[in-house]
Amino acid sequence: MALIVLLSTVSFTVDSHYCGDTLVDSSLFGHVETCGMEVQQNNAFSSECNISKKDCCSDEQVTIKGQDTLKTSFDKLERGQQLFVAAFVHTYILLFVEPQAELNSYKDYTPPPLVRDIQVLDQTFLI
């Protein structure tokens, strides 16, 4: 259950670098590495990318947002749902309550006096 809550609240971003139509690099935790076309754009002798041509490299960023609010207000629940929650909490709390009065049927009984220790005499000991 905790794993589901963790995964539903985490948001992350995936960065991707495309050179033309091919994916060069993709990263989940950092910046993507480029294909090196930026260096070639500055070079006037390049035939693939030059100043007159449109930039052939592109960066794409996909953000997946997690859930921000997890707490539901008790006032927003319907009447039947409020009664169910109240009854569930009441019965759940009563599961852990121990009985108040303990029956002690031996409170007026005193054990007989110990005349001799039979375990020591017979040398029988529980280990």
From TrEMBL:
Q: Which InterPro entries match?
A: DUF8199, HYC_CC_PP
Superkingdom = Bacteria
State the protein's name: Secreted protein
Q: Which organism is it from?
A: Aequorivita vladivostokensis
